[in-house]
């Protein structure tokens, strides 16, 4: 019987800790694609529920907009993708680290890697928080991340290393991925490809965390992990209802942390 | 017959590319320990040979000294350790990224991880350059780093990921280290413990890069790799004469790059 690593109770607990502090969040978006619009709406709705004011700023001039956000804004999220040639991380250099609630500024990632205080990218932190919430031991275990993105795979590697896991990052250029991922005690699928991780990729009894959020033709959401993995894994996080709600709750929690810090 | 992955020819080639540009390097040091003093002298001597002016600034006020370095300084190295409670990486936030020739500022590490232009820590870059110089394929191979330091292990993980290796970072808290490291096609020893990697840790034919520079009682230098590994590895970098000279050459090369950029 596979344990379902739900994130809903943890998300509720995080949200319960953040009410009562006035805070303002800005989401800067330069893209009109539907997935991004959905993401922005879902953050806005979640913010409203805990009394965080959320301003969505649509712009074609990301750098200019970031530089003009007022002092009354406590947290800033840059929605991706950012159209054009300049990488999103380059624009994110314009987010002050104290307001970088999704850890998008490379300085936040570098500080995280160096063991200095910084906001971690919310999705990466959500994975670790979900493991801890379900009392899954990290220290000394083989953790395997499939996906090397700047927003999830790479920062997650640092978070897991800081917690004493032996960490492997695999990706689309890894030969015989299944043989590699079967070494994992804790397997994290963060490649953004529906069904990439099948039963063959999983050692029986391993813990599997599914970070994927791939839209389906009928308007639903599926992860990177094939549902058949449930018969093989010792524990598996659902999509939706696993990493996702924890990520959203952490974004809001970071925003309140930023507001509290700014008030001192 | 094990191939010796010498760094001396590569170091000479790098140095040959950097003469003729006036450049000034500052080494800021707050420590009096002998290993650091040796390191500072060796950089100074190497700089002098290629016509780079090198100023050693001894200080008890690292942050103040870093903020007061003049515009005529092109490259800045902060010698470690920095005594006291504040991590060296926090002080390194005071090195302007354009002058951060040893990639010590967390923003440099973050930019590296995000795939943005930045100076890499010279030792980490030296490992990759040594592999490339000896025509060792990186893409698609299992690379294993033993050691998770901010100055070597972590940035090296990003450099190898960017070159499409499947990367594992192991460390002192990894159980059964030998079983883990035997998976490696390319094994990089960067733990700072003499003789840590023995023949049992190495798959026959694997490439082994020794980053260790451990002082011996008689004033010599040994790596992290037991010499007996030579009978088992397909290729092994010597200590001294492997990663070390390439690291020094890269520090000087970065300084000249910084001077050229500043001139434009």
Automatic annotation (TrEMBL), chains A, B:
<keyword id="KW-0368">Histidine biosynthesis</keyword>
<feature type="binding site">
    <location>
        <begin position="147"/>
        <end position="149"/>
    </location>
    <ligand>
        <name>NADP(+)</name>
    </ligand>
</feature>
<keyword id="KW-0658">Purine biosynthesis</keyword>
<keyword id="KW-0378">Hydrolase</keyword>
<keyword id="KW-0486">Methionine biosynthesis</keyword>
<comment type="function">
    <text>Catalyzes the oxidation of 5,10-methylenetetrahydrofolate to 5,10-methenyltetrahydrofolate and then the hydrolysis of 5,10-methenyltetrahydrofolate to 10-formyltetrahydrofolate.</text>
</comment>
<dbReference type="InterPro" id="IPR046346">
    <property type="entry name" value="Aminoacid_DH-like_N_sf"/>
</dbReference>
<keyword id="KW-0521">NADP</keyword>
<dbReference type="InterPro" id="IPR020630">
    <property type="entry name" value="THF_DH/CycHdrlase_cat_dom"/>
</dbReference>
<dbReference type="InterPro" id="IPR000672">
    <property type="entry name" value="THF_DH/CycHdrlase"/>
</dbReference>
<dbReference type="InterPro" id="IPR020631">
    <property type="entry name" value="THF_DH/CycHdrlase_NAD-bd_dom"/>
</dbReference>
<comment type="pathway">
    <text>One-carbon metabolism; tetrahydrofolate interconversion.</text>
</comment>
<keyword id="KW-0554">One-carbon metabolism</keyword>
<dbReference type="InterPro" id="IPR036291">
    <property type="entry name" value="NAD(P)-bd_dom_sf"/>
</dbReference>
<feature type="binding site">
    <location>
        <position position="213"/>
    </location>
    <ligand>
        <name>NADP(+)</name>
    </ligand>
</feature>
<comment type="similarity">
    <text>Belongs to the tetrahydrofolate dehydrogenase/cyclohydrolase family.</text>
</comment>
<keyword id="KW-0560">Oxidoreductase</keyword>
<dbReference type="Pfam" id="PF00763">
    <property type="entry name" value="THF_DHG_CYH"/>
</dbReference>
<keyword id="KW-0511">Multifunctional enzyme</keyword>
<comment type="subunit">
    <text>Homodimer.</text>
</comment>
<feature type="domain" description="Tetrahydrofolate dehydrogenase/cyclohydrolase catalytic">
    <location>
        <begin position="10"/>
        <end position="102"/>
    </location>
</feature>
<feature type="domain" description="Tetrahydrofolate dehydrogenase/cyclohydrolase NAD(P)-binding">
    <location>
        <begin position="121"/>
        <end position="261"/>
    </location>
</feature>
<dbReference type="Pfam" id="PF02882">
    <property type="entry name" value="THF_DHG_CYH_C"/>
</dbReference>
<protein>
    <recommendedName>
        <fullName>Bifunctional protein FolD</fullName>
        <ecNumber>1.5.1.5</ecNumber>
        <ecNumber>3.5.4.9</ecNumber>
    </recommendedName>
</protein>
<keyword id="KW-0028">Amino-acid biosynthesis</keyword>
């Amino acid at each position: 019987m596979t344990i379902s690593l739900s994130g809903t109770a943890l998300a509720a607990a995080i949200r319960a800790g953040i009410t009562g502090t006035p805070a303002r969040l800005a989401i800067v978006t330069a893209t009109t694609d539907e997935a991004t619009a959905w993401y922005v709406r879902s953050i806005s709705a979640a913010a409203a529920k805990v009394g965080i004011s959320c301003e969505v700023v649509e712009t074609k001039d990301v750098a200019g907009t970031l530089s003009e956000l007022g002092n009354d804004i406590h947290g800033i999220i840059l929605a991706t993708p950012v159209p054009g040639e300049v990488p999103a991380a380059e624009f994110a250099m314009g987010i002050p680290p104290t307001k970088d609630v999704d850890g998008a500024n490379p300085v936040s990632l570098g500080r995280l890697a160096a063991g200095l205080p910084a906001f971690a990218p919310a999705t990466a932190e959500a994975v670790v928080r979900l493991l801890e919430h379900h009392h899954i031991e990290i220290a000394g275990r083989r953790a395997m991340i499939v996906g090397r993105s700047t927003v999830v795979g790479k920062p997650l590697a640092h978070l897991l290393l800081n917690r004493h896991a032996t960490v492997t990052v695999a990706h689309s250029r890894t030969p015989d991925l299944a043989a590699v991922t079967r070494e994992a005690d804790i397997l994290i699928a963060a490649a953004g490809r529906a069904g990439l991780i099948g039963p063959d990729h999983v050692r029986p009894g391993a813990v599997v965390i599914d970070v994927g959020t791939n839209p389906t033709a009928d308007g639903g959401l599926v992860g990177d992990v094939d549902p058949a993995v449930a018969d093989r894994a010792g524990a598996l996080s659902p999509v939706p209802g696993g990493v996702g709600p924890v990520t959203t709750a952490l974004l809001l929690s970071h925003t309140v942390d930023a507001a509290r810090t700014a008030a001192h």
